[in-house]
Amino acid sequence: MRRKAALVLLAAAVFFAALSPLLRWYAFPRLAKVPSHQYQTMVLRAENATLLDYSTLRAEKVPEVTIVQTLKGNVAASEGIERTVDRDVVVWDGLSYVVGPEGEMVSKIPERYIFDAHTQEPVHADGEMVDGDPVRRRGIEFKWPFLTEKRDYEYFDAQARVTAPIHYQGTRDFRGLEVYYFEQTIPWTQVPYPKTLPVKGMTPEALTETGTTRWYTTVRKFWVEPLTGAPVYGEEIHREELRGGALLGDRDKVTAFAGHVKMREDYIRHTVDLVTSHRTLVLLMTSYLPWGFLALAVLLLALSLHLEVRSRRPSARTPDPASAPEQISA
Question: Are 225 and 177 in contact (CB under 8 A)?
């Protein structure tokens, strides 16, 4: 009976020992994915910013500029692309909507970002664009990979349509979470005008014909939770200028926008809570369960060996009366 129990325990030990690496190295890459239907909104603000009044072409100091960023998963588009590639694909239809101090629209830039659901690597397919212009992304955007490493990454800048390194700057504590801090600087770069401008009848083609160009620079900062690869906080020190051409008259340049853009407090709290819950799920699959199964396998193996040893130990035998020597009576 003990030998049968030892064999059962040995089989269970082998099962859990095999399950431990399978969960970490086989199941995790297939189960840890960005959902294709995800929808999220982020609100950022730049207080005491400088903003161009396009009707007068004069830069003015304003109390606040608000940027609303939305990312909406396009399930139908992702399913269509998945039929042509051998991987899980996510399609995000994004919109960056900039609002002035009186609630007026300053600009809106749509984009479509197509990427691998697990690695976050770009997937090139029809429809990949920024503000209606086809692009071919290289590097990540919006989200880092699961199990982010302490190294530099390539990050795509939608304004300039270029990819540049975003540098790992160290580990920090952000509201109780251990995060990796990354920073990217985009130097002054000529960029296209938005397709939608705040003044009715004004078009990017008409502005381009004047010879006046639009330039942009930013310092981009992200605090990234490494297990999920999700930024819990972000900032940008953002500047835009119009330069030269007949539009500015005798001026060489004018500031179109300048401000320190930061996430709004309520969205910071919501993001931290959401990432904390997702972090627990990743830990279950990469640490808690694999190590727990391995420890359980060792325990089961020890019990199995213990029962096997006990089953082989000889028990004390009672002497057989028939074999005892006869006593001779006097």
Answer: yes
How many whole angstroms separate alpha carbon 71 and alpha carbon 28?
A: 25
pLDDT tens digits, one per residue of 53-106: 888 889 999 999 999 999 999 999 999 999 999 889 999 999 999 999 989 999
My answer on whether 125 and 214 are in the same domain is yes
The phi and psi torsions of 38 (rounded to 5 degrees) equal: -60, 140
Tokens representing residue 158 in the block: 């939608």
Considering the domain architecture, whether residues 221 and 250 belong to the same structural domain is answered as yes
Measured distance CA(98)–CA(43) in Å, rounded = 10
d(CA 275, CA 146): 12
CA atoms within 13 A on the CB side of 159: 20
Name the pTM for this structure.
0.86
d(CA 302, CA 299): 5
- 173: domain range? 32-263
